Amino acid sequence: MGYQYTIWILILPIVAFVINGLGSGKLPGKISGWIATVAIGISAFLSYKTAFQFFGSGSHEKIIAVKTTWLRFNEGLQIDMGILLDPISIMMLVVITTVSLMVFVYSQGYMKGEKGYDRYFAFLSLFSFSMLGLVVATNLFQTYMFWELVGVSSYLLIGFYYDKPAAVAASKKAFIVTRFADLGFLIGILIISFYTGTFDFDILTRPEAMTLPVTATFLGLSTMTWALLLVFMGGAGKSAMFPLHIWLPDAMEGPTPVSALIHAATMVVAGVYLVARLFPTYSVLAPDALEVVAFIGAFTTLFAAVIACTQFDIKRILAFSTMSQIGYMMLALGVSGYGGEEGLGYTASLFHLFTHAFFKALLFLGAGSIIHAVHTNDIREMGGLRKYQPITHILFLIACLAIAGIPPFAGFFSKDEILAAAFATHPIYYIIGTLVAGLTAFYMFRLYFIVFWGKSTSYTHTPHESPVIMTLPMMILGIGSVVAGLIPFGSYISSDGVPLKGHIDWVVATISVVLALVGILIAFKFYKTESAKPEAISKSFGAFYRSALSKFYFDELYIAITKGVIFRFVSKPLAWFDRNVIDAFMNLIAAITNWVSSQIKEFQSGQLQKYAFIFISGVIIILLSFLYANQ
Amino acid sequence: MSLQELLLMRHEWLLIAAVVALLLLELNFSEAKKTNVIPAAAIIFTIVTLIGFLPSENGRAFGGMFITDPIRTLMKNILNLGVLIVFLQSGSWLRTQNNFNRVTEFYLLIISSVIGVSYMISAGHLLMFYLGLELLTIPIAAAASYEQYKSKSAEAGIKLILSSAFSSAILLFGISMLYGTTGTLYFSDIKLAGELLTVLSFVFLFSGLAFKISIVPFHLWTADVYEGSPTSITSYLSVVSKGAAIFVLLIFFASVFGPLQEVWQQVVYGTAIFTMTIGNLFAIRQQNLKRFLAFSSIAQAGFILLGMVGGTPLGMATVIYFILIYVFSNLAAFGVVVAVEQVSGKINITDYNGLYNTNPRLSLTMMLALFSLAGIPPLAGFFGKFFLFTAAAESGFYTLLFIAVLNAVISLYYYLLVVKAMFINKSDAPIGYFQSDYSSRIAMSACVLGILTTGFYSPIFEFIKKLCLESF
């Protein structure tokens, strides 16, 4: 049986987008939400069907389910559009459609009565379409196109409340930062295609292709290394890796379900997916580039975890925790080798991507449920919510345990594999990773205790539990957060397609679990009931605490660079040049055009005899020019 | 002659049958019910167009006078599509007080002219070609003066018939010189060498066709005739008549004048520059939308020459592809002009101020059409122009390409003027909201669909390319 039906996984969301987009403002009631939900529901069903069919067949070979040539440059180089099915793309299909479906259902409750309800679902469907198109891309160019589409839909959704200046600014920031990163991606693609003559993943990642003539070097590194580093730059932008992370915290201005879908579970892991997609190429042709990936990942995971400990906005804490977790995934990819046991990092990274999608989406949806009830993002204004929101409380706790890596929750298994992979090759990254595991437990439980326990806050109106349409998707994700780790992931996904036997490294596991428990304990001591200890400790850290609170001043740094250096010394002279030289030149051309145009209007006199005269003159002039030329 | 040979002329027979059918209908409808011919003609022509797309036999008839092959069939089909759209758009104009009792006349004239188009494209003999050309022109000259009660329309008819008589004379002169040098008029028998007399005959023949295509300096009739004629005739002239002449020019370059490539390349090169530039320079100044579109279509012809100049089969394919897109884009623009003119009688660009507020859909259609003509991605016009430019680049005509790109920028400027008028300019008395009739809405939707999809659906271009590689 073929896989042609997978095309419908893509078609349905785009159809929902078109219907909701064209019918915006005209569709009655909540029909738009249902159109989008049913479409993504069927997509989800088809994704599961694909997964069962593919993994059930036992073969892990790549399958091109659909393929059409879109643009042919020459005999060798052409751009295809198609659907590539292999373990990782199918896993992504499952993750994206599942989380999308949950978020779509949840949104029907969360966005109820909001202005632009159908616009919201139109954009959401567009996003799902783009993200699905991205993961099934058969070639780099298709990836790039959907990559940009994902960027656009993210932009539209962050700026959904377009009358709120902060949201508009955040959407612009996200778009510009990721676009800047994508510039690197595009250059990388061009270099790769120039040297290899193809965009196709199938050819690029085939082991035979590893003998490609890529010996040219630049600044000491091979061209392929440079190209793959540039591709990684694009991935780092989308995945909010340091130093291109600055857009992610601000992106929390969008509606919370959007943050759950885009900025937690799907789009932000696109960078990880991209590196994983090209992993054989990275691993064989550019190990140096992988070192960079590992370093950036390790740095980001620590950096973001430290900041997360100091923040007070519930969604921003989650945003930094997302950065930190994606840092883990990048780190795991970076330390991985190709094939066999050495490929543990690769499996671990995607495993963590998989489990993280569940508990992080749950955390965000839980945060949405809380915000929905108390109408604020600031955790200092929350407290004691366990009494008012029992379901949210339990589910949030499950997610916190999962992210903290407490067995038997999902996060434990994947994080353990990452740490084991790092331990085997890069001990220093292992130490960072373990430390961050403790930090993660601390800041997540800091959040948990402040919000659900802590001081009893008097609310202006009593918070209430969210409706079933919101809690039901959270429960399903909660189940995922518990059981997702039990899947024998390595036997499905491994760097070289040969099943990898997963096992728990007990030493690594014990150390990280103990550290996590210590983190939880500290959080418990500090925040279960209101106390002065945190204040005192943060005081003792002094400047370090203040800079972490201000996200290490990176926003300010970027503004200083863009405003102070780029605007003043690059943009202003360019603007002057543009206005006074280029525009003046253009105006001159325009003036000349106008002048000539008015000079020749006499030819069009309306008199037929003149027309005939010009006609015959034309013939004679052409002839004379030939006579002259032939002499 | 066998029945088989006669059946090769399927397009022509269908058109003739359509003429006969319409004549019979005309006889059967009473004076008051003459307008019933309008839907009847639309249906008949739809059938004609659809049957044209069915797979057909290839071959030669009448000892090689008449040739039909897939590429020629495709050309005819593209033009039939254009005619169909023109028919659909002209319904409400034909129903007006002054015209309703002469409806059939309009259809008979146009279909007769299309018969000429078909024979001209299928000609395998220069006389056959000439007859087709005349059959194309004379009914249109009559149709141009369809609104006799308007002096402008009468003027347009007279100007068209006189100037085409003039150009025909020169063309015929060219044909006779060709006969003098080679002793035959069959395309397949003519073997040209680069002697001066054949160059002379080529230039004469070229000028005759260039007249139809409105290539500078043979374009002067265009603006006056386009402006004066009823708008439906103008759209026919700008799309079908022009497209037919371009197709024939393609065939000539590939067959009769193939050996003379060096000569015609220079002529095409030179006239392309002038046509683009002069067309654009005049278009900038126009206030009347019909004149505006006249000059814009001249400039477009200049771009089309860009595809021909290399003389490669790929270039020929880009030209045919571009014409297909041009049919949609230009007819969408004309569709809006016809609709607005019918309701308000207004035809100037300033009259369109504020049109978006009153008629958003019509304005969007016009915008898409103009953007497509200007070649803005992702509309079909972009792909059309892009391929034309690629064809010129592949043959190494970089200077020409540079001039073409400059001209594309100029053209963007004046196309945007119209868009600006509709969307940005304010008007105290904008054209009020109205709804055009069903058939023209269908026609415009078809055009918009064509503009939006043709560029993306790559099998179309691949198909044309394949045919061109086989035929040229």
Task: Describe it.
The complex is a heterodimer of chains A (631) and B (472). In chain A, helix 2 packs parallel to helix 4, helix 5 (140-158) packs antiparallel against helix 6 (165-196) and helix 6 (165-196) runs antiparallel to helix 8. The longest helix of chain A has 46 residues, at 554-599. Chain A is 70% helix and 3% strand. In chain A, the strands form two sheets. Chain A has a two-stranded antiparallel sheet. In chain A, strands 3-4 form a two-stranded antiparallel sheet. Chain A is mainly alpha-helical and 631 residues long. Chain A is globular. Chain A is built from 24 helices and four strands. Chain A has helices spanning 7-22, 31-56, 87-110, 117-135, 140-158, 165-196, 201-204, 223-238, 247-250, 256-265, 270-277, 279-285, 287-308, 314-335, 344-374, 390-404, 410-425, 427-452, 468-483, 506-527, 533-541, 543-549, 554-599, 608-629, and strands at 63-72, 78-85, 217-218, 221-222. The model of chain A has no long low-confidence stretch (mean pLDDT 83). Chain B has helices at 3-7, 10-28, 37-53, 70-89, 91-94, 103-122, 126-144, 151-182, 196-213, 221-228, 231-254, 261-285, 289-308, 313-344, 355-358, 360-374, 380-394, 398-423, 438-453, 459-471; strands at residues 59-61, 66-68. Chain B has a two-stranded antiparallel ribbon.
What is the terminal separation of chain B in angstroms? 28 Å
Number of helical elements of chain A: 24
State the order of secondary-structure elements of chain B, H for helix, E for strand.
HHHEEHHHHHHHHHHHHHHHHH
Largest sheet of chain A: 2 strands, antiparallel
Percent of residues in β-strands of chain A = under 5%
Poorly predicted runs of chain A: none
Radius of gyration of chain A: 28 Å
Tell how many strands the DSSP assignment of chain B holds: 2
Helix content class of chain B: over 70%
What's the mean pLDDT score of chain A?
A: 83
In quaternary terms, these chains amount to heterodimer
Number of helices of chain B: 20
Global shape of chain A: globular
| Sheet of most strands of chain B | 2 strands, antiparallel
Q: Give the overall form of chain B.
A: globular
Q: How many beta strands in the DSSP annotation of chain A? A: 4
Specify which chain pair forms the largest interface: A-B, 31 and 32 residues
Helix content of chain A: 55-70%
Rounded mean pLDDT of chain B is 90
Structural class of chain A: mainly alpha
Q: Give the helices and strands of chain A as they follow along the chain.
A: HHEEHHHHHEEHHHHHHHHHHHHHHHHH
